[in-house]
Design goal:
With 181 residues, the chain is mostly helical. Helix 2 packs antiparallel against helix 3, helix 3 runs parallel beside helix 5 and helix 4 packs antiparallel against helix 5. It is globular. Helix content is 82%, strand content 0%. It has six helices and no strands.
Length: 181
């Protein structure tokens, strides 16, 4: 088939629509993340003053990732998404280390959900794998919890990825049915 065939044009149109959906989702998630980072900063000021300087650095990291992703999202959508996800992974890592809390390791589930919203299943599973590795590495190296206690946040990261994957499979199946009609 040549590049001017109606099927290729149709596929290109679908790809563009899907990219526009990712772009719109990214903008919404960037705004929500900025609001959550601000609210978390306010909470740290009132509840965890000893960690204020580290929290400010974490918020600046998050805002930097948001700003970079927003600047990139029109021309380089994949790079914008990667920048945002990397910033979130790093922020969760720093939160767990700063507050020395095994509970913070559950935040990796949110990064998996964001990845599922913005990427394909392969990338989502990659983020989930990174989350599991970070849960285990941070938990053991920083002694956030005994090794057996780290199994639960790691399991929840995997279950979150599985649920997101199943959900997206159903969505794409329904989309395929709709487009074939």
């Amino acid at each position: 088939m040549d590049s001017s065939s109606p099927v290729r044009a149709y596929d290109a149109e679908i790809a563009q629509v899907l990219q526009d959906l990712v772009r719109e989702s990214l903008r919404a998630l960037l705004a929500v993340t900025a609001i959550v980072a601000w609210a978390w900063g306010v909470a740290v000021v009132h509840l965890a003053r000893p960690h204020l300087s580290q929290a400010v650095l974490i918020i600046l990291l998050i805002l930097g990732a948001i700003g970079a992703a927003y600047r990139l999202h029109r021309q380089h959508l994949d790079l914008a998404v990667a920048t945002y996800l990397a910033g979130l992974l790093l922020a969760v890592m720093l939160i767990a280390l700063t507050f020395r809390s095994a509970t913070a390791l559950y935040l990796f589930m949110l990064v998996v959900l964001v990845a599922a919203t913005l990427t394909n299943p392969r990338a989502t599973w990659g983020i989930a794998l990174a989350g599991v590795v970070l849960v285990l590495a941070l938990g053991k190296s920083a002694r956030l919890a005994p090794g057996t206690a780290l199994a639960l946040p790691a399991l929840f990261v995997v279950l979150t990825a599985l649920t997101a994957w199943l959900s997206s499979q159903r969505l794409f199946t329904a989309l395929g049915w709709t487009l074939s009609m």
